[in-house]
Amino acid sequence: MSEVPWHLSCVRCGETYAGLELRYRCDCSGTLDVIHDLSQCELTREILDARLSSKDSLDRSGVWRFRELILPLGDEKLQEIAAARGEGSTNLYNASEIGREVGVEDLWLKHEGENPTGSFKDRGMTVGITVAKLLEMSAVACASTGNTSASMASYAAISGMDGLIFIPEGKIAFGKLSQALAYGAKTIQIEGDFDDAMALVQDVCDSEGIYLLNSINPFRIEGQKAIGMEIMQDLDWQVPDWIVLPGGNLGNNTAIAKGLLELHELGIIDQLPRIAVVQAAGANPLYTAWSEGTDIEPVKAETIATAIKIGNPVSWRKSMRGITALDGIVTEVTDDQIMDAKAIVDAAGIGAEPASCATVAGIRRLVQEGVIDPQQRVVGMLTGNLLKDPDIVVNYHMGELDGIESQRANAPISAPADIDEIRRIIRQ
Known about the structure:
It is a single chain. The strands form three sheets. Strands 4-5-13-10-11-12 form a six-stranded mixed β-sheet, sandwiched between helices. By secondary structure, the chain is an alpha/beta fold. Helix 5 (121-134) packs across helix 6 (147-158) and helix 13 packs across helix 14. 40% of the residues lie in helices and 15% in strands. It contains 16 helices and 13 strands. It is globular, with a radius of gyration of 21 Å. It starts with 5 loop residues before the first strand and ends with a helix. It has a domain at 92-117 and 219-397: Rossmann fold (3-Layer(aba) Sandwich), CATH 3.40.50. It has helices spanning 45-51, 57-60, 75-81, 96-102, 121-134, 147-158, 174-182, 194-208, 218-234, 251-266, 285-292, 316-325, 335-347, 354-368, 390-397, 419-427; strands at 6-10, 16-18, 32-36, 92-94, 106-111, 139-143, 162-168, 186-190, 211-212, 242-246, 274-280, 329-333, 377-382.
């Protein structure tokens, strides 16, 4: 399949390449965008809303419902080749109770932890694996702190592909590692951090003819665009004032900004929200660069929020471009603030992994600083399921996390098997 209705374009120098050329960077080393010809796109609100009541597998997917803006191959071809397993269509929770805790009256939380493998990564992976199938690849690979590996392993398995995963040794939550192992991917623990694993996997893919599925792959970004598109549809196309999300490798905010700009160009939404990216203070290269007006300088990442524990994000240039286009901002929060926010989200019955809750901690900070008005409508993104980091959850409530003050601990209570003692505990 040599001709497709999109092309690749370098973010740095503007050089263009064929839509299915097997590359992840420009010759100048810049990252690539997928560029669609929107003049040929006839997608409307009415078409998208009609798909919500359809039983067609593409229509019911929270990614492929927006297929004209994701991978426009035509319905017949996509029915044949799309690697889908019901991703997307996640809940947008009215989180007014949490909002009162952090100072926002109209707070909504989009829970991407409700995707098939428990994180937003499934949205990008369904597209990335589909392109791998188009390219007739037999093996795919990624470097991962957890969620990417779980998602890639699953989508590779349902597509009959070999999966190869590089993880930092001893630095991946068991809730995530267990998924990669269970889905059958070959998992290699290497000495070093995520950035070391990322450098290695790129070399291996180049030398061994394996398809790379980290967020440097531009088609991953195309799938993740659907998060913002679905938020707009969830809100009946009424654009919120803010979308707030965590920042690690920075593919998500890049994707959401790209998708919203495309919806706006098509007239599907009539204005754009502002965007806020929240980094952990121990893994904050984007925050530092944004604050100082410089390029990214890699840092040695250290944070309890493993999903955003990334010190050299590959998508930083795209990320900054999207933040600027949406009049956005970057902030940072401490691990203590992340875990305090996590306890609030969890206690509301929603629950999320630590990195997700950087979103809520960031909203609180931005309200306190006067950046977000308490009267504005804010949509926060929760990126992963509560059970991704179960050890952290239990140790927080037991007061056993080093360096973390468990301000909202809910430790189990030991008691004898005596009804009077149980009654005393209940009535306390």
